[in-house]
Amino acid sequence: MFRQSARPAAFMVGGSVHWICNFAVGLIFPFMERGLGPYSFIIFSVICLVTLIYIWMVVPETKNKTFLEVSQMFAERNKTEIKVGDGDLPLKDSKESLESAEKITAF
Predict the structure, then answer these.
(1) Using CA of residue 94, residue 96, residue 97, residue 99, what is the dihedral sign?
(2) Burial class, 94, CB count within 10 angstroms (exposed 0-12 / middle 13-18 / buried 19+)
(3) Whole-angstrom Cα distance, residue 80 to residue 67?
(4) Distance of CA 69 to the CA centre of its chain
(5) Under a CB-based contact definition with an 8 Å cutoff, are residues 101 and 81 in contact?
(6) What are phi and psi of 45, to 5 degrees?
(7) Rounded to two decimals, what is the model's pTM?
(8) What is the DSSP string of 8-41?
(9) Residue 89 burial (CB count, 10 A)
């Protein structure tokens, strides 16, 4: 969901968070397993369930949509305006005027 210019930085942040979380689970799990025994996986199941609910409710469907359409969806949700080149691209099915947009994202 990032522009091409921001992808390397986003990949590094995402990868770093992933490995830090793996490290934390590796440190915490032996103590949890010793204390909770066979029920230690319930905590991870709850975390997975909360993540599933968050993705289901908050993250929009992007199947069969172009990058520009996805960008428009996020711009509409964040009340921003997408500027492509010299001309403005109106938000798809937008009920608000472009003057009420708070930020401009240039592509």
Answers:
(1) negative
(2) middle
(3) 16
(4) 16
(5) yes
(6) -65, -40
(7) 0.58
(8) HHHHHHHHHHHHHHHHHHHHHHHHHHHHHGGGGH
(9) 16
Per the DSSP assignment, residues forming a β-bridge with 87 are: 84
Beta strands in the chain (DSSP E): 80-84, 87-89, 103-106
Kindly report, residue by residue over 10-66, the tens digit of the pLDDT: 899 999 999 999 999 999 999 999 999 999 999 999 999 999 999 999 888 888 988
| 85, 68 Cβ separation under 8 angstroms | no
What the block records as the tokens of 86 is: 């010299």
Q: Which tokens sit at 1?
A: 């969901």
Task: Tell me the residue length of the chain.
Answer: 107
